[in-house]
User: Which sequence fits this backbone?
């Protein structure tokens, strides 16, 4: 069923992607059919924006790997981007980026590998062509050089996401404990260095011929297309491919856990952690929904049982979570608790056990079940806002159930769950004598062997599966463009000065509201570092009418998610909620913003939590690099030069009065905007806003504008943050940038995209694709109200830190001294222009974009005019800016890694003077 509706703000007739009837679960309209070669195709039309998502699932994942080849499915995912017969390496990426692709990537799980792109609707055939050429002609171009490069990239990914991340090796150890040797779920999906390096060309070819055939794949297309045209293009691009042998489902027996087994893992961490893990029923099987609800009741939010007990009441945990991770062979129910500084994981375990036993013996209340259901329902709707999200959900339902239209049944399966069924599931499926208990404690980080890559074997020939078709050598031309009319909010002011920005989007039964206050990190005082963020975090910890527990329970009971974020120039309170309960959620948001009381006991709870956050931050290399760069650029006396959380000293010294004073001085209606996007009509919203916000008056005297604090950029050329024996070096190369109001904004964005803003940008192609030094590298301008920054960011293998930094500096010099090629600028212009509609797919992204209009004084039609500004950028206007902003001699280098090897390397690069900053006392 398809509903038609006119949306004046878009100037388009919208085919709503979600069809609903009163009091009935929603549905996603779709059509499913199969090509003669076995390729499944699912089409779902949505005309709301001129974009289309192409989502291809191959029904193969880590569960299909052979012993000794762990990580192979994921490595093969990378190989699919290494070039094919008619799309040599990098061509498809460049064409797609220039066309304005968004959400372009791939991922591997235990059960499947997916590839996805969202493109302007007139570029549908380009996306299909790129996916089809990989499916049909990868082997025709596969060579040893591509395999060697991607082995380097994947091993860098392992170092970054597993080995150089706190608790990364702990997460991997849990899977090793849950599953016996030989079970496909035992290894980390990314695999081990030894197995990744052991892959050979023959292995890649065999894997492709076995699993990457049309009859083992499902193609989903969601978005703005004509059905007949889409079917014709799918047949053209995929119809001639040969069918492969049928792929049997993995024949795997998962041994049950028959006792409690305990493991201790040492890691370079400040805070201990305990994980409790059970093997539970597979996805969509009986017990799966019940345990998902149980996870929400136990640790699904601030109102959950374990959060209230461990984090709030006893204050022995920093955070706690519970999940039912569902897969095809089995699922994993996990409870994870991070101990607060001064406490241990072992101390938390009996407290967690007591709550699980109580839930099994007494069962949950009906209110707890409803609260969990509402949160699950909201999360489902949020995931369906994007065309790509709907495509992925259709593919998921199809793979696991054979029913792409399972959405209403999925929601209904949670609605049917009773309190008694949750109790029974916990009692029967989460026994204390059949689980894994993993304790993470501070100690040496013991890593798997990381052997150097051997000399690559000699290249061997290629092979073919499908007959060549000469027309594939020419990338498809775009179809007729459907000019996007980007959203423009309605705007009005209340009598008290509060600005309201509203955009109605009825497609999903959810609403997002953001209160944007012109007071962010820049409104603080470096001598009292962290006060804005500290104060903001306390707003929902008590008002004149509700305490912290009541606020948490009421938000979650409504199916609403509350969040508070401190940004450079603004503070943002947001609530995402079900539209049927949005009036009540808005009342809670208004109460939090207008009537906080900063209770003394809550201040002390938050103080201890923030001190533990500081302890944890000292072991996060990426965070350390970002904080060090800010301090180096702005100086220790500038509020932009300190961490948003503050330092150990400032957190201890901050008083209740200082927190209250900051809120009183900054939270004022004339300095704020309420941005609302979603399924609420203008008249309804206006009445609601007047009721909840119309009486808002400042709580204190007129706000005193913060004085201008000088920027004192370091004179050091390079700064080292010592992390002994780190497997990677986090690198930042940056400088002071410009304000958001700069007339050069379009030119700088185009230049940055070409330099480091896209996957096929110069920096990423150099460091990742050519050299294999990193998992990814990029650059960006961060624009602020008064000033901003420019920075190149990456994490590189420790032993190539110096050559990687030299390459970054070389790319910066080249960008400033030699003009960008016309093709580079054209690709960047096209990417930035054509991708803009994708920035308005979700309520959250749309409201954040509108928040910029208020924060930086931009006109309401700003985004409608922005494409023309990007398209007007040319070499004559861009080149002087490249020379001005990309000079590495005017930048400072931050390197978070092993000083013992870094210092001498940096000196050889001529990066004097070099300073070494301690973490404690300088950054935190």
Assistant:
């Amino acid at each position: 069923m398809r509903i038609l509706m006119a949306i004046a703000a878009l100037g388009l007739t919208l085919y709503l992607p979600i069809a609903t009837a009163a009091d009935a679960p929603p549905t996603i309209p779709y059509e499913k059919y199969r090509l003669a070669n076995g390729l499944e195709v699912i089409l779902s039309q949505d005309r709301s924006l001129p974009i289309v998502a192409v989502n291809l699932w191959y029904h193969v994942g880590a569960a299909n790997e052979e012993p000794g080849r762990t990580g192979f499915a994921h490595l093969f995912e990378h190989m699919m981007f290494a070039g094919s017969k008619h799309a040599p390496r990098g061509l498809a990426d460049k064409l797609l980026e220039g066309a304005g692709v968004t959400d372009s990537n791939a991922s591997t799980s235990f059960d499947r590998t997916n590839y996805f792109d969202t493109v302007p609707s007139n570029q549908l055939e380009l996306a299909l062509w790129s996916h089809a050429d990989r499916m049909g002609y990868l082997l025709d171009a596969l060579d040893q050089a591509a395999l060697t490069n991607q082995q380097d990239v994947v091993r860098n990914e392992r170092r970054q996401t597993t080995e150089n991340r706190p608790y990364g090796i702990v997460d991997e150890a849990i899977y090793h404990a849950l599953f016996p040797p030989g079970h496909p779920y035992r290894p980390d999906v990314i695999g081990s260095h030894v197995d990744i390096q052991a892959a050979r060309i023959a292995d890649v070819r065999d894997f492709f011929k076995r699993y990457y055939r049309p009859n083992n794949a499902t193609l989903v297309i969601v978005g703005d297309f004509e059905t007949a045209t889409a079917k014709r293009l799918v047949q053209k691009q995929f119809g001639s491919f040969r069918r492969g042998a049928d792929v049997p489902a993995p024949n795997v027996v998962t041994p049950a856990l028959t006792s409690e087994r305990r493991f201790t893992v040492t890691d370079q961490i400040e805070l201990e952690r305990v994980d409790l893990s059970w093997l539970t029923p597979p996805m969509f099987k009986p017990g799966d929904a019940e345990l998902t609800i149980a996870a929400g009741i136990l640790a699904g939010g601030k109102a959950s049982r374990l959060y209230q007990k461990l984090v709030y009441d006893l204050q022995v945990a920093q955070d706690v979570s519970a999940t039912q991770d569902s897969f095809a062979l089995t699922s994993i129910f996990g409870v994870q608790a991070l101990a607060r500084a001064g406490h241990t994981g072992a101390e938390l375990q009996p407290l967690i056990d007591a709550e699980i036993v109580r839930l099994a013996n007494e069962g949950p209340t009906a209110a707890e079940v409803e609260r969990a259901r509402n949160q699950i329902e909201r999360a489902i709707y949020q995931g369906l806002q994007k065309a790509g999200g709907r495509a992925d959900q259709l593919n998921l339902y199809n793979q696991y159930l054979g029913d792409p239209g399972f959405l209403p049944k999925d929601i209904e399966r949670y609605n049917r769950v009773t309190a008694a069924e949750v109790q029974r599931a916990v009692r029967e499926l989460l026994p204390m004598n059949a689980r894994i208990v993993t304790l993470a404690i501070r100690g040496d980080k013991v890593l798997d062997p990381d052997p150097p890559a051997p000399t690559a074997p000699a290249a061997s020939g290629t092979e073919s599966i499908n007959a060549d078709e000469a027309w594939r050598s020419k990338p498809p031309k775009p179809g007729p463009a459907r000019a996007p009319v980007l959203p423009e909010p309605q705007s009005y002011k209340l009598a008290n000065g509060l600005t309201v920005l509203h955009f109605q989007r009825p497609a999903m039964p959810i609403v997002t509201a953001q209160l944007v206050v012109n007071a962010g990190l820049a409104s603080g005082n470096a001598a009292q570092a962290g006060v804005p963020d500290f104060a903001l975090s306390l707003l929902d910890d008590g008002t004149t009418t509700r305490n912290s527990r009541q606020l948490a329970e009421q938000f979650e009971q409504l199916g609403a998610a509350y969040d508070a974020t401190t940004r450079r120039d603004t503070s943002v309170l947001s609530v995402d909620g079900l539209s049927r309960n949005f009036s009540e959620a808005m009342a809670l948001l208004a109460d939090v913003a207008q009537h906080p009381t900063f209770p003394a006991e809550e201040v002390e709870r938050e103080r201890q939590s923030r001190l533990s956050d500081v302890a944890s931050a000292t072991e996060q290399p990426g965070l350390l690099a970002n904080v060090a760069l800010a301090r180096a650029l702005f100086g220790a006396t500038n509020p932009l030069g300190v961490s948003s959380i503050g330092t150990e000293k400032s957190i201890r010294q901050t008083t209740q009065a200082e927190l209250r004073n900051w809120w009183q001085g900054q939270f004022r209606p004339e300095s704020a905007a309420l941005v609302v996007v979603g399924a609420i009509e203008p008249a309804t919203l206006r009445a609601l806003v007047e009721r909840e916000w119309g009486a808002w008056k400042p709580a204190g005297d007129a706000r005193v504008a913060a004085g201008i604090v000088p920027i004192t950029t370091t004179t050091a050329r390079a700064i080292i943050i010592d992390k002994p024996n780190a497997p990677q070096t986090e690198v930042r190369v940056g400088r002071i940038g410009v304000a958001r109001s700069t007339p050069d904004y379009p030119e700088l964005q185009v230049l940055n995209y070409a330099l480091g803003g896209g996957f096929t940008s110069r920096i990423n192609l150099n460091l990742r694709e050519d050299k294999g030094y990193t998992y990814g590298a990029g650059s960006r301008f961060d624009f602020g109200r008064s000033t901003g920054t420019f920075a190149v960011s990456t994490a590189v293998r420790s032993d190539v830190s110096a050559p990687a930094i030299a390459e970054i500096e070389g790319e910066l010099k080249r960008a400033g001294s030699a003009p960008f090629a016309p093709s580079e600028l054209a690709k960047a212009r096209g990417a930035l222009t054509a991708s803009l509609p994708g920035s308005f797919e979700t309520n959250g992204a749309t409201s954040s974009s509108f928040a910029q209009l208020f924060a930086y004084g931009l006109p309401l039609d700003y985004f409608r005019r922005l494409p023309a500004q990007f398209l007007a950028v040319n070499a004559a206007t861009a080149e002087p800016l490249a020379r001005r902003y990309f000079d590495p001699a005017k930048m400072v280098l931050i390197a978070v890694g092993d000083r013992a090897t870094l210092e001498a390397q940096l000196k050889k690069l001529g990066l004097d003077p070099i300073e070494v900053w301690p973490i404690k006392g300088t950054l935190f």
About this structure: The domain at 29-249 is CATH 3.30.830.10 (Cytochrome Bc1 Complex; Chain A, domain 1). The CA atoms of residues 174 and 438 lie 7 Å apart.
